[in-house]
């Protein structure tokens, strides 16, 4: 996953700056998340070509039993992460 974070004195322009930082990498059509807290965070999935070049076998575990089980275990170990997971749409309960 590619990730760019931008913190500006004014929030105007922060998202656009983060997106410019990610120009030419990743594939937003495969998944992209924007969160705004103290900074604007743009996360984007790797492109198929990037995954192949890195020798990665990508599997999408969203909406699967395995993905749900992994998220439950993670949140048991680090419950403070639940708010962040909900913000990016990965987990809600």
Features:
2 domains; single chain; alpha+beta; three-stranded antiparallel sheet; 35% helix; 4 helices; 93 residues
In short:
With 93 residues, this protein is an alpha+beta fold. It has two domains: 1-58; 60-93, no CATH class. It has helices at 14-21, 48-53, 65-77, 82-87, and strands spanning 2-6, 32-36, 40-44.
Structural account:
With 93 residues, this protein is an alpha+beta fold. Helices cover 35% and strands 16% of the residues. The chain has a 3-stranded antiparallel sheet with strand order 1-3-2, with helices on one face. A hairpin with a 3-residue loop joins β2 (32-36) and β3.
Give the arrangement of secondary structure elements.
Blueprint: E1 2-6, H1 14-21, E2 32-36, E3 40-44, H2 48-53, H3 65-77, H4 82-87
Antiparallel strand pairs: 1-3, 2-3
Mean pLDDT: 84
Number of strands: 3
Helical stretch tally: 4
Strand content: 15-25%
Strand order of the largest sheet: 1-3-2
End-to-end Cα distance? 24 Å
Order of helices and strands: EHEEHHH
The Rg value, from CA coordinates, equals 15 Å
Low-confidence stretches: none
Quick one: overall form?
Answer: flat
Which secondary-structure class do the elements indicate? alpha+beta
Number of domains: 2
The major beta sheet can be summarized as: 3 strands, antiparallel
Helix proportion:
25-40%
């Amino acid at each position: 996953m590619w990730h760019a974070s931008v913190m500006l004195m004014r929030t105007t322009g922060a998202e656009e700056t983060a997106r410019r930082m990610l120009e030419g990498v990743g594939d937003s059509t495969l998944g992209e998340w924007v969160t705004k807290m103290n900074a604007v965070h743009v996360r984007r999935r790797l492109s198929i070509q990037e995954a192949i070049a890195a020798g990665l076998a990508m599997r999408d575990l969203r909406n699967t039993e395995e993905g749900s089980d992994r998220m439950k275990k993670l949140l048991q170990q680090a419950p403070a992460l639940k708010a962040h997971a909900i913000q990016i749409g990965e987990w809600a309960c």
